[in-house]
Amino acid sequence: MNLRQAAILVLGIAALASPAAAVDGEPKAGPHGFIYGTVETTSGNTYNGTLRWGTEETFWDDLFNSTKGELPYLEDYRRETRHRNRIKVFGVTVGYRWDDASGSRMFIARFGDIRQIDVMRGEKIHVTMKDGTEFSMEGGSNDVGATITVNDDSLGTIKLAWNKIERVTFKATPAKLEPPAYRLYGVVETENEKFTGTIQWDIQECLSTDKLDGEADDGDMSIEMGRIRSIEKRNRKGSLIVLKDGREFVLEDTNDVDSSMRGIHVDDSRFGRVTVSWEAFERVEFQEVDHSGRGYDDYRPGAALRGKVVDYDGKSHSGSVVFDLDETREWELLNGSRDDVEYHIPFGMIRSIEPMRDDGSKIVMKSGVETVLYDGQDVSESNDGVVIIRENDRETYFAWDEVKRVDFE
Fold first, then answer.
1. Helix (H) or strand (E) holding 15
2. What is the DSSP string of 82-95?
């Protein structure tokens, strides 16, 4: 059995076992949202407790990134996936430029969808998902190679260097756990949209005890995020900080408060995760909630993607779906952007994807919410196409410019 046949078998088994889309649970009061697990080291020791990946990922809906090592569909369809980029003169298409399909793809998954990470040599890892799918990968982000901080249940805090780690096994966070701080939550405003949900400021500060740094008129300040009521962008150099006690300060010249900020993650229930850039950001109003996000058991094992491709002849082609020649599971994320905001949407939330003439795609969520996204590999003419696998394992490939719409079950 070759690699592609094995992938087809996995898709088929998952489709039979999970005929309906899995629905993730809602957050409950308590510490359930904190990443929790067992870390085994090369010396044979084990540590159990909440985990912080580097200085960033702390919660189950945070994203783990690496580079996929095996792309069987992309390899098999490489010749056919050379996609056409229109050559236009004064807005009129006069021909096409042919490019080879891209040779690597990012692996992006929520920590809540992962069962285990095995550290091999260097930056090589083996990741096992809750649904049983496995990936061998290498590097690709600062998540691979990160120091992991474990708040061990009986020992206390220990920081583990990557080369000391053998395996991380994730498990549900105990309800009796006493978290060190509460999770940031609020409303982030842009010119065109408001996003509500848990917040990670500058892609790092996510706890009430994390610090926001900046220079004020009277000197350097380092303010606990939990003391802040709102942050409003003033200009490229700084922001207005309003504290819960009513005092106001303009802070400048750090990546927490000026144009060097890396972005604001918001887990908005309509879309999954969005990242608001400094260019898009206008204001955030923080709120306090009694939960830390969904717990590990609320992330159901994702089924194989199933649905249909509607072509431009109006014909429907149904079966298991391989989207952009690498996404096959409901937990995988569709990526695109709009108005300087990046979207990372789990495929399990999506009802349909419809390519548009302006090199974007209309995304309709299962909730009925709609948006149009641009720029990403998944939603533009950079998309390498869609494969439909029928019940008899027969594959049909559709180039992106042959797809009128993809409907998911």
1. helix 3-17
2. -EEEEEEETTEEEE
The Cα–Cα gap between 384 and 102 comes to: 8
- Taking CA atoms, 228 is separated from 150, 266, 279, in Å, by 27, 17, 22
Token readout for 295 is 């717990």
Burial class from Cβ neighbours inside 10 Å (0-12, 13-18, 19+) for residue 6 reads exposed
Beta strands in 62-180 (DSSP E): 63-67, 83-89, 92-99, 106-110, 114-119, 124-129, 134-138, 148-152, 156-160, 165-170
Total Cβ atoms within 10 A of residue 404: 15
Residue 99 pLDDT exceeds 60: no
pLDDT, tens only, 185-238: 999 999 999 999 999 999 999 999 999 999 999 999 999 999 999 999 999 999
Q: Which stretch of DSSP H or E encloses residue 16?
A: helix 3-17
Identify the pLDDT of residue 27.
80
Please give, one letter per residue, the 3-state secondary structure of 20-77: CCCCCCCCCEECCCECEEEEEECCCCEEEEEEEECCCECECCCEEEEEECCCHHHHHC
Q: Torsions phi, psi of 357, nearest 5? A: -75, -20
Q: Count Cβ atoms within 10 A of the Cβ of residue 359 and give its class: 0-12 exposed, 13-18 middle, 19 or more buried.
A: middle
The pLDDT of residue 19 is 35
Cα–Cα distance for residue pair 199/292, rounded to 1 Å: 11
- Token pair 């690709």 is at which residue? 140
Report domain extents, the chain.
32-69+105-178, 185-287, 300-408
Say what the pLDDT of residue 103 is: 58
Give CA 108 to chain center in angstroms.
6
Report which secondary-structure segment, H or E, holds 232: strand 228-233
Give the β-pairing of 272-276 and 306-311. Answer: unpaired
| pLDDT score, position 17 | 37
Helix (H) or strand (E) holding 131: none
Q: pTM for the complete prediction?
A: 0.86
